[in-house]
Structures are given as C-alpha cells and as structure tokens.
Design goal:
198 residues; RNA-binding; cytoplasm; single chain; Pept_tRNA_hydro; Rossmann fold; EC 3.1.1.29; alpha/beta
C-alpha cells in the first residue's frame, strides 16, 4: 500500500496560488477529506499530516524546501519511516498535460521537472508513483494569441480562472480514484482516472 503522498509546490503565501503548487492543492484537499491537519516537522523539512487508511498509516507531506530541493524532505521521511519508493506517490504539476487532465504512472523520466529530479536523486530510483495534474504549457496560450511566456514565469503565476476550474476538477478526479489506488488496484485506478479526462 502507498504509505506516503507528497504534494509538490513552493512554500510561502506568495506562491500559494502558483500553477507550480498544484501538488500542494491536492494534498490540502485530501487532508481536509481525511480530517487531518498539517504540522511543521523540522526533521522532515516540511509539513506532515498523518492519517489512517484501512488501518495503515498514511503520511501526507508538503516540503518546506523550494521545489528544486523537494527530495531532501522526501528522503528524510522515507528513511525515518522505512518507506520504499514503490510506496510513494508524488503529486505534481505537469506542463505537458492540459488543465483538467490527470494521469497516474509508475516510474519514467522527470520531463525536466526539478522537483522530480531531486526526489529521484534522493530515492536513488525513478520507480515511484506520480500523479500528474495538467497545468498546460505557455505555448498553448501563445497559440491563442497571448504573448509567449517563459516556462519559469508561467509555472510561478496564477492560472486563468477557467484553467483553475479545470485543475480543481482534475484534483477531484484524482481524489475519487485514490481509494482504488491505495488498495493496490492501480490498473483500475488508472483506467478510471484516464477515462475521466481526455
């Protein structure tokens, strides 16, 4: 069973509404659903919430490091609680998926995502689960006539209102399949999630 769900993002009020914080939005919604609160845990370099799922401990983590150093928090918590990479689910923003789309997969490349690069370095393997929440790409906006924006600027800005609604819907879809996923029925979870979004 998955024992650790990490939401990726940047700490601080100034980043709370950035596209890059979609992972934080997901674990915040999950904590609310499970009726647990995040507490700052200095030894794990982040905010941690502990829940029970089917009588098993389930940890939620929001690293307090910036995105590029997310692996420090993930590595510290995994070592302390002896959690293996295959029991880890990282929830991330994904440039290569349109807002409203969510995908789940085990392993694979980092797609240039600095948070994933650092997690992979600290876990020593790419073989951990990812829930990818689409935020779109600045080239999509450019195709609609908006000015071309640098990727770094794009992820550190608030989504358009229509995009936010779509991202919120993909978070809800992810929460709905989580029970299947946590039970280990990963194929059924994937099928259901991937059928909800194009």
């Amino acid at each position: 069973m998955t024992k650790l769900i990490i939401g990726l993002g940047n700490p601080g009020e100034e980043h709370a509404e950035d596209r890059h914080n979609a992972g934080f939005w997901f674990v915040d919604a999950l904590a609310k659903q499970l009726n647990v609160r995040f507490e700052t845990e200095k030894r794990f370099l982040g905010k941690v919430a502990k829940a029970k799922w089917e009588d098993e401990d389930l940890f939620l983590l929001k690293p307090n490091t910036y995105m590029n150093l997310s692996g420090q928090a993930v590595g510290a918590l995994c070592r302390f609680h002896k959690i293996t990479p295959k029991d880890v689910l990282v929830v991330q923003d994904e440039l290569d998926l349109k807002p409203g789309t969510a995908r789940i997969k085990l392993g694979g490349g980092t797609g240039g995502h600095n948070g994933l690069k650092d997690i992979q370095a600290h876990l020593g393997t790419p073989e951990y689960w990812r829930l990818r929440l689409g935020i779109g790409h600045p080239r999509d906006l450019a195709a609609e006539g908006a000015r071309v924006m640098d990727v770094a600027d794009f992820v550190l800005r608030r989504p358009l209102q229509t995009e936010q609604k779509q991202i919120d819907a993909s978070i809800e879809n992810g929460l709905q399949i989580l029970s299947l996923f946590l039970k280990g029925d990963t194929q059924a979870a994937m099928l259901e999630l991937h059928s909800k979004t194009n």
